Amino acid sequence: MKIIGVVTALKSEASCLVDKRRFPLYQVVDIGDRTSLCLSSIGSSAARGAALKLCGQNINALVSFGVAAALDDKLIPGDLVLPEAIMMDGEVLPVDMEWRDRLHGIMSKHVTVTSGVLTSCEAPLTTRAQKLALGETTGACAADMESAAVAKVAADAGISFLAIRAIVDPLEFSPPEALMGAVYPDGSVDAIQLIKLVLNRSVSIVTLIHLALGMHVARSALTEVVQKTGLTFASDYMPYRDAELSESRSVNSE
Question: Could you tell me which residues come within 8 angstroms of residue 252 by beta carbon, excluding any fewer than 6 positions away?
Answer without folding.
Answer: none
